[in-house]
Amino acid sequence: MEVKQNKGLSLFILTIGAFINPFMGASINVALPAIGKEFSLDAVTLSWVSTAFILTTAAMLLPFGRLSDIKGRVNIFKKGLLLFLASSLLCGLSVNGYMLIVARILQGIGSSMVFSNASAIVVSVFPPQERGRVLGINVAAVYTGLSAGPFLGGIMVQILGWRSLFLLNVALGIVMIILVYKYFTEEWKEAEGESFDLPGSLLYGASLILSMYGFSKLTQPAGPYLFTAGILGFIVFYRYERTVKTPVFDVNQFFANKSFSYSNIAALINYSATFAVTFLLNFYFQYIKGFSPIETGTILVAQPVVMAVFSPLAGKLSDKIEPRVVASIGMAVSALGVLPLIWITPETSELYIIICLVLLGFGFALFSSPNTNAVMSSVEKKYLGVAASTLSTMRTVGQMLSMGIAMLLFSLFIGQAQLSKSNGAQLMQSIRVAFILFSVLCWLGVWPSLARGKVR
User: Is residue 65 situated within a structural domain?
Assistant: First the structure.
C-alpha cells in the first residue's frame, strides 16, 4: 500500500504525529510545579525542563530538514519516531531534574527529525490546490494536542503523577511507529546524491545554542559573552553558506525569495510573542490563584480549542484568498488578545483571561495555516524539506525566544529561589513585564506579514 495512493491514510498518520509533540509540550507546563517540588528545582532550572527540549529541537531542525531531502523524508521521519519514543520512556524513568533535562534533550533531537518532515510529506502527497486545506487539518491536530495537553495533563498529573504524561507519550509513539512502518512505503529524495553540509550544520547548531543559552543567562557574568559568541557565529555561518555549493541553508534563496523570507520572519515574531503566554499563566493560576492542575488546565484549554476549530477553515480560506491577508489579520487579532493581559492582578476574573485566550487562539488560527501555506508554496519541490524545516526552526526559535524572555525575567525578579506564594509579588512583576514585551512584538509582526507580497 503506497502513501501516494492513500492520501487520506497518510494524512491520518501525519495528523497523529502532529498531535503528539504539542500535547507533550502543553501538558508538561502544567506538570512543572509538581516536577519542581519532587526534585527541589529553582525557577530557572525548572524552566529548563521545557527549554532544553525547545532549544535542541531548534538547533537540529534545519540540518535534519536538509538531510531528509538527500536521504529520504520518510527514512528520517521513521528514525526520529524511534528516538522520540525511547527518550520519552527515559523521561518517565528520570530520578532527578538533571536526568530529566538530558532526556528532554534527546527527545528534542527525535522531535526535530519528525517535525522537519511532517509538512514536507503532506505537501509531497497532496496537489497544490489542496495544500491549504490539509495543512489546516495538520495545524488543527497541533492545536488539538495543545488543547488536550493542559486539560488531560492536569487530570493525569493530579491523579497519576507527572511521569504518566511521558508514559502516555510512549503509548502514542508505539501506535505511530506501527502505522508508519506498515503504510509509509513511498519515499521522496529530490536532492538525492547532493552532499550534506556538515560544517555548516555544526556551525549553525552551535551558534543557535550559544545565542539562546546566553540570552537566558544575560543577568549572569558569562551570559553576554555567550550571547555575543552566538551572534558572531551566525555571521560566520551566513558568510560560509554563501560559498558552499550545497549549503544546509541556502541563504541566497532566503533573502531573494521575499515571500519565503518574510513569511518565516512573521512566524518567528508570532511565536516569540505568544508561546510563553500559557507558560506564564500556568504559574499565575497555580502560584498566585492557588488553583489545582486540573482547574488550571481547564482554563488554559480555551486558547488551543479555538485554534483547533478555526485552523482548518483558515487553511481552506488561504487556498482562495491571498494568504498574507488572512495571516496579517490573524497577527493583529493575536495582538488584541495579548494586550489586555498586561493588566491582570491576583483578583482578575477567570472570564477576563479566558476571553483574552479565545482572542489569542482565534488570531493564531488565522495566522498559522495561511502562513504555512505561503511558505510551502513559495519554493521548488526539491527544497520542500528545507522549507518545512526552516519554518519549523523559526517557530521553535520563536518559542525559545519567548521562553528566554520569561526565564530572563524570572532571573531578574525572582533569582535562584524556588517558586512559591511567598514570592508571588515578584512573579506577578515578571508576568506583567513579559506581557508588555509580547504585546509590542505582536504589533511589530503585522508588518512582515503584510510585506511578504503575493504568493500567487
Answer: yes
Asked whether residue 19 is domain-assigned, the answer is: yes
Whether the Cβ atoms of residue 361 and residue 231 lie closer than 8 Å to each other: no
Amino acid (1-letter code) at residue 141: A
Q: Which amino acid is at 165?
A: L
Instruction: Please report, as a single letter, which amino acid is at residue 222.
Output: A
**373: nearest Cα among 314, 305, 445:** 314
Q: Which of 32, 307, 31, 49 is nearest to 151 (CA)?
A: 31
Query: Amino acid letter at 164?
Result: S
Higher pLDDT, 110 or 377: 110
Cα distance between the two ends of the chain: 34
Residue 382: band (very low, low, confident or very high) from pLDDT cuts 50, 70, 90 = low
Residue 320 and residue 202 share a domain:
no
Kindly state the DSSP code that residue 196 receives in the 8-state scheme: P
Residue 73 is predicted with a pLDDT of: 83
How far CA 100 is from CA of 51, 53, 82, 205, 273, in Å, comes to 12, 10, 18, 22, 27
Q: What pTM, to 2 d.p., does this model score?
A: 0.75
Are 75 and 187 contacting, i.e. CB atoms less than 8 angstroms apart? yes
Counting residues of the chain whose pLDDT is more than 70, the rounded percentage is: 95
Pick the closest to residue 229 from 243, 242, 210, 246 (CA basis).
210
CB-CB contact of 144 with 19 (8 Å): yes
Residue 151 lies in a domain: yes
Whether residues 122 and 243 fall in one domain: no
pLDDT tens-digit profile of 427-437?
999 999 999 99
Q: ∠140-153-139 over CA atoms, to 5°?
A: 10
The residue segments making up the domain with residue 167 are: 3-184+248-451
